[in-house]
Write a sequence for this structure.
């Protein structure tokens, strides 16, 4: 079944904002259809009057009216096409925005399961297929369908045998086209799925270019790329076979309709039921019906593609975040306490498998700095992600300032919790836009004040165009240390109550290390902080220490007490060298 209802349901809420345009488009389509139907009637009158011996003075006005109406009809058609495209693109751009906002609101588990290339193809590629169909459907499918209906009615009024024959033939044509469409839609769904896989693979390869080239894996990645193309090609050929079936059927049906008209016209003219002008009228209307039927066929090809896109877009919109519905409680001002209460978490959907955190419990008082220690995979980064509510624990509760994270609006929580990771995302934009995340309401004076408070004036002065310096995506042309300085400024602008810092010595630029240390001091002042520590200097900054092993807390307490206790794990780490033990 053609998924027109699903398609209209998906876009109806976006058309509400364009009621005026849609109403204007409906008026234009009605006028264009009426003018197209009037034209053959004028020619019929002209022919019959000419055969009847009417003088030229009576025929010229008919010809003039016909030409004027033809020009007006073309002007209306152009205007309607422009308005239809405007309606289509406006509606689908709203859909793009809705899809993007929805995807960004989903939990990180969703993003781990879907590559960036796949999501780009869904948000842009699938919606683009809908946009092409939507703008054309309004003016071609609906308009041409109404035109065909008008032709059948006028033919019926002209001669009921002709009307009955054309109506039966049109109904048969619709049934054939619909049946072929049902066959072809599943083929295009597979084509769209392979397209998403292809772009997802391209996105992964582009993002991993450095690692791929550095490890000499380019040939292996190309083999994988070629395998996807080999699988995609026969699917695309099969998808276009649906177009070929529809095209062949339309040609055969059109020839059959002409044969039917010639036979009926010859018979009815011979028995005197139709005049010569009426025979022309019937032939002209049947020929006119071929173009709208052909355009409807072309739109059915787009509908085959859109049918797959509709399901995929609806699938994304139907995806629900694994985060619980947020409440409406607010977080208190100032530094926030952090509490983990018997938190168990697994990245696997089945919480009984591959548990990352096992009933973890600890509390950090407001304004204190917590250092997280542990080997790779012990759960340090998971704790950071739970504090920022990128994920939801399966059991237990995370509280900030005494308020459960699930009971705070996500926007407020993200505003009050700042996080700096080892891999800082740089956008292809100016330093100003990278610092503010494109928030144009933040004045330059405030930016410069924050940069000064973090003692980053010299860093900014070293950039060729200051705040207007354009950075490239990825590393942005910055060292790892400079990128972290930029991230510190981003956090400072938001003035959060909690700062989560994933600090790693391997990511720091030795030239800027001293500057980073001072910036960290400023960043943590008056805030609660959770630092994933990798260096002795970072441990000395911490007030409390949590040591994780296998997703469980094996040691927790004030740093000074643990360091003074020679039997503690922290003391042994400090003696043995953290960099060696925590690898």
């Amino acid at each position: 079944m053609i998924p027109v209802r699903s398609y209209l349901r998906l876009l109806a809420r976006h058309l509400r904002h364009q009621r005026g345009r849609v109403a204007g488009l409906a008026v234009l389509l009605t006028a264009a259809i009426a003018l197209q139907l009037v034209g053959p009637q004028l020619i019929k009158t002209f022919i019959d009057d000419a055969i009847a011996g009417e003088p030229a003075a009576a025929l010229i006005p008919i010809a003039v009216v016909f030409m004027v109406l033809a020009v007006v009809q073309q002007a209306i058609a152009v205007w309607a096409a422009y308005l239809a495209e405007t309606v289509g693109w406006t509606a689908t751009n709203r859909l793009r925005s809705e899809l993007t906002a929805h995807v960004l609101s989903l939990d990180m588990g969703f993003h781990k399961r879907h590559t960036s290339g796949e999501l780009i193809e869904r948000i842009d590629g699938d919606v683009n297929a809908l946009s092409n169909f939507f703008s054309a459907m309004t003016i071609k499918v609906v308009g041409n369908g109404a035109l065909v209906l008008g032709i059948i009615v006028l033919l019926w009024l002209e001669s009921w045998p002709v009307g009955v024959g054309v109506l039966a033939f049109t109904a048969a044509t619709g049934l054939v086209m619909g049946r072929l469409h049902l066959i072809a839609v599943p083929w295009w769904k597979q084509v769209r799925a392979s397209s998403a896989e292809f772009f997802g693979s391209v996105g992964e390869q582009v993002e991993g270019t450095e690692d791929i080239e550095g490890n000499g894996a380019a040939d292996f990645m190309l083999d994988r790329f070629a395998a996807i193309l080999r699988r995609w090609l026969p699917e695309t050929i099969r998808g276009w076979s649906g177009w070929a079936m529809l095209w062949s059927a339309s040609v055969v049906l059109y020839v059959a309709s002409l044969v039917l008209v010639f036979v009926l016209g010859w018979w009815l003219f011979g028995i005197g039921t139709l005049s010569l002008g009426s025979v022309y009228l019937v032939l002209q209307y049947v020929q006119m019906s071929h173009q709208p039927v052909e355009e409807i066929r072309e739109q059915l090809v787009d509908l085959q593609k859109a049918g797959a896109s509709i399901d995929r877009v609806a699938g994304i919109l139907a995806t629900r975040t694994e985060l619980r519905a947020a409440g409406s409680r607010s977080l208190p001002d100032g530094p926030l306490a952090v509490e983990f209460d018997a938190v168990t978490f697994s990245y696997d959907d089945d919480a009984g498998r591959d548990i990352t955190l096992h009933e973890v419990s600890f509390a950090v008082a407001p304004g204190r700095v917590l250092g997280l220690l542990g080997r790779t995979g012990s759960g340090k980064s998971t704790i950071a992600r739970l504090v920022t509510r990128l994920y939801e624990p399966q059991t237990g509760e995370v509280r900030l300032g005494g308020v459960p994270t699930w009971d705070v609006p996500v926007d407020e929580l993200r505003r009050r919790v700042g996080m700096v990771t080892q891999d800082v995302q740089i956008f292809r934009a100016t330093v100003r836009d990278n610092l503010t995340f494109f928030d144009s309401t933040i004045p330059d004076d405030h930016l410069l004040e924050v940069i000064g408070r973090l003692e980053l004036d010299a860093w900014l002065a070293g950039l060729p165009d200051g705040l207007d310096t354009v950075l490239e995506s990825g590393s942005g042309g910055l060292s790892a240390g400079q990128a972290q300085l930029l991230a510190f400024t981003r956090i400072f602008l938001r003035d959060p109550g909690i700062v989560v810092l994933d600090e790693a010595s391997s990511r720091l630029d030795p030239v800027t290390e001293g500057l980073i240390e001072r910036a960290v001091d400023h960043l943590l002042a008056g805030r609660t902080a959770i630092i994933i520590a990798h260096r002795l200097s970072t441990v000395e900054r911490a007030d409390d220490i949590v040591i994780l092993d296998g997703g469980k807390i094996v040691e927790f307490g004030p740093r000074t007490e643990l360091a003074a206790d020679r039997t503690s794990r922290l003391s042994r780490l400090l003696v043995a060298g953290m960099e060696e033990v925590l690898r």
Summary: The two ends are 58 Å apart (CA to CA). DSSP finds 20 helices and twelve strands in the chain. Residues 4-318 form a domain with the ABC transporter transmembrane region fold fold (CATH 1.20.1560.10).
